[in-house]
Structure formats: structure tokens, C-alpha cells
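Human:
Class, as today's exercise, you are to examine the entry below, and be ready to discuss the fold:
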Amino acid sequence: MAYQILINIALAVIWTFLQNNYSLSSFFFGYANGLLLLYILRRFLVFDFYFIRVWAIIKLLFLFLKELVVANIDVIKIVLNPNLSNYTPGIVAVPTNLNTKFEITLLASLISLTPGTISMDFSDDSKIIYIHSIHIEDREEMIAQIHNTFERAIMEVTK
């Protein structure tokens, strides 16, 4: 992946020199042409197109920002509600399908960074993350939401 990025940047620089236009727009146009060239070459050479992983990272970032905004709104509703008896805090054991320590740490960090939840502990084999939440309506729904959002996005980035 790193070689592809360097090749793409080198193609953009070469494009800029060949155009004899040293502006940023010329560089980005050359970068886009390099992306297209690498995308076409991936059929003839054996490598994965790096921009697919970059796009997955961008999607993970936007997913986290969306979940961050939604969680902030939920926490504001809880804090501003005078009747706190409607909310049930608790701890949920979330099994994970992630394999590496990096993936599990990233999942735990994303969960802890969203307001209202915190990753408390891991099981001995690191296959279960214990999460405390400020309000749990349905444990299975919370587990499914974590699997369908953060865990799936992390798998797209790392696979």
C-alpha cells in the first residue's frame, strides 16, 4: 500500500512537471490520473488497490462522527430530563469477531470516545468487551448496533 501511495505521488509530480504548471490543481489532477492508472494496472499486476482502504478509513471516520453526534444528543436528553428513573444504566458483554489486538483496541477506543458508553474490561481471550452504558433499552439491540456499525467498519479497514 505504501508503495502505491508513493507511486501515485510520483505520477502526480511527473504530471505537474510535464504540464509545466506548478499549481495545486495541476498536482491534484495528476494525482487523480495516477489513481486511475493504478486502478487499471491492478487487473494486470497482483496487488490490492490502496484507495479502497483509504475510502474505508474515511467511511469509518464519518461513521464515528455520526455516532458521536447521536450519542451527544442522547446524553443531553438524559441530563436535561428531570426524571432519571426512566433510564437504566448497565454493563453489557459484547462478543467481538475481531482478531488482532489493534482491531480490538480500536473498537474499544471508539466505544469509549462516544459519550454515554465506556469500555471497561476485556475477557481473557479478548473476544468479549465489557461496556458500561448510561442507558440500555435492549442489550441485544446494543450488541447488534456495535456489530453493524463500528465492528463492520473496522473489518473493512483492516482486511
Q: What stands out?
A: Residues 50-80 form the longest helix (31 residues). The mean pLDDT is 90.
